[in-house]
């Protein structure tokens, strides 16, 4: 008795699954809608990789400002005061000494590097090159974000179209089922035909459920890209017809090979490596610096009186030997420059290759659109003919549902 009850409950649960599946709110047509331009604008602002690239540009800009600041003199100031009791122990005489020992002092110091073997100019050039690299990589990242956003946007649109195709399959399966039932009523069909038509209808419903799940996932992916924790419905653009490119193929390949952000970044890396190489060789040249200061001291908290002094100094420094560190740094910088040049050549070749592949993909996609339109027309006509043949008893239901 218990086994029968459990079996009955299990059967009831299983049989209730189709009804539950049909009631699942997979797609909410009242969800947030977004246009392609708005999606791209939001994604560029909210993308974390884009923000990281922007931070790299800011850091490179600050490094350039620091390199410019090396051409300016350094200024520093100091001040102080000390107060002691009227009676203190003098360690020099081993006696107690009475009297005020208050003191006040202030000073100003300036220093300037007159010559550093061209190192400051090399560092400034490297900072500018690093800034150009950061800006190029930011632009490259922006292109990647735009491409990813558009891919997710059109993927969501594509899933909606596939969902519509699945729903049309239900309509066609329903028509085929009605047709087999009508044929069976007039004695021209069989029960097997009706069962095959019903199986096709079941498969069509399953395809709709799968398409709804994939559409919801695509909308969630688009929502994540634009910073929303919900599915987002893409608004169909006004014109989706293919348009000709504004440049000739040779012009596009030339632009990709010389002006692509990845190529510009690699070129900037070469300049930065060259400047680093020049900077590493500047240690063989002496450096000259100038310093000056002004000091004031008084035993009273007053600017009148007291002692004042100033100083002016000139110094030269040169490292005679530092354990071959200079030679090692030069060799490293030289090989870094060579590697940067090879990376620039590789980036140029890769950009040319990717541009050519993209052009071929565009041509293929454009041809595929025309072929798909022709295939739809042929399929509609084939379905119409097959149904007519089934009505007159020439074709079987398997020809109709497949």
UniProtKB/TrEMBL annotation:
<dbReference type="InterPro" id="IPR051906">
    <property type="entry name" value="TolC-like"/>
</dbReference>
<dbReference type="Pfam" id="PF02321">
    <property type="entry name" value="OEP"/>
</dbReference>
<keyword id="KW-0813">Transport</keyword>
<feature type="coiled-coil region">
    <location>
        <begin position="156"/>
        <end position="183"/>
    </location>
</feature>
<protein>
    <recommendedName>
        <fullName>Transporter</fullName>
    </recommendedName>
</protein>
<keyword id="KW-0812">Transmembrane</keyword>
<keyword id="KW-0998">Cell outer membrane</keyword>
<dbReference type="GO" id="GO:0015562">
    <property type="term" value="F:efflux transmembrane transporter activity"/>
</dbReference>
<keyword id="KW-0175">Coiled coil</keyword>
<keyword id="KW-1134">Transmembrane beta strand</keyword>
<keyword id="KW-0472">Membrane</keyword>
<dbReference type="GO" id="GO:0009279">
    <property type="term" value="C:cell outer membrane"/>
</dbReference>
<dbReference type="InterPro" id="IPR003423">
    <property type="entry name" value="OMP_efflux"/>
</dbReference>
<dbReference type="GO" id="GO:1990281">
    <property type="term" value="C:efflux pump complex"/>
</dbReference>
<dbReference type="GO" id="GO:0015288">
    <property type="term" value="F:porin activity"/>
</dbReference>
């Amino acid at each position: 008795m218990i086994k029968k009850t459990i079996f009955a409950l299990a059967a009831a649960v299983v049989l209730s699954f189709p009804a539950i599946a049909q009631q699942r709110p997979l797609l909410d047509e009242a969800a947030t809608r977004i246009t392609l331009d708005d999606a791209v604008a939001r994604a560029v602002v909210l993308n974390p990789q884009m923000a990281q690239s922007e931070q790299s540009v800011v850091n490179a800009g600050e490094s350039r400002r620091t390199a410019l600041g090396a051409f300016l003199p350094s200024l520093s100031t100091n001040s102080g005061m000390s107060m002691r009791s009227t009676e203190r122990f003098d360690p020099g005489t081993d006696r107690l000494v009475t009297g005020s020992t208050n003191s006040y002092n202030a000073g100003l110091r300036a220093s300037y590097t007159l010559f550093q073997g061209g190192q400051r100019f090399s560092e400034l050039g490297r900072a500018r090159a690093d800034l150009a690299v950061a800006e190029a990589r930011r632009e490259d990242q922006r292109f990647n974000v735009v491409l990813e956003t558009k891919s997710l946007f059109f993927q969501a649109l594509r899933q909606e179209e596939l969902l519509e195709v699945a729903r049309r399959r239900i309509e066609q399966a329903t028509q085929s089922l009605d047709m087999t039932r009508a044929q069976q009523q007039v004695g021209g069909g069989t029960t097997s035909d009706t069962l095959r038509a019903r199986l096709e209808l079941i498969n069509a419903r399953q395809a709709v459920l799968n398409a709804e799940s994939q559409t919801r996932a695509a909308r969630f992916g688009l929502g994540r890209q634009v910073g929303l924790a919900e599915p987002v419905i893409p608004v169909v653009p006004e014109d989706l017809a293919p348009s000709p490119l504004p440049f000739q193929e040779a012009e596009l390949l030339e632009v990709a090979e010389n002006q692509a952000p990845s190529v510009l970044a690699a070129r900037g890396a070469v300049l930065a490596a060259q400047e680093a190489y020049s900077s590493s060789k500047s240690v063989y040249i002496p450096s000259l610096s100038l310093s000056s200061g002004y000091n004031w001291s008084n035993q009273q908290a007053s600017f009148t009186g007291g002692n004042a002094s100033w100083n002016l100094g000139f110094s030269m420094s040169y490292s005679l030997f530092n354990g071959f560190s200079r030679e090692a740094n030069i060799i490293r910088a030289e090989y870094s420059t060579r590697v940067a040049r090879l990376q620039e050549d590789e980036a140029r070749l890769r950009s040319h290759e990717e541009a050519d592949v993209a052009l071929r993909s565009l041509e293929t996609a454009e041809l595929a659109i025309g072929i798909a339109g022709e295939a739809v027309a042929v399929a509609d006509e084939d379905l119409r003919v097959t149904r007519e043949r089934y009505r007159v008893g020439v074709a079987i239901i398997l020809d109709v549902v497949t």
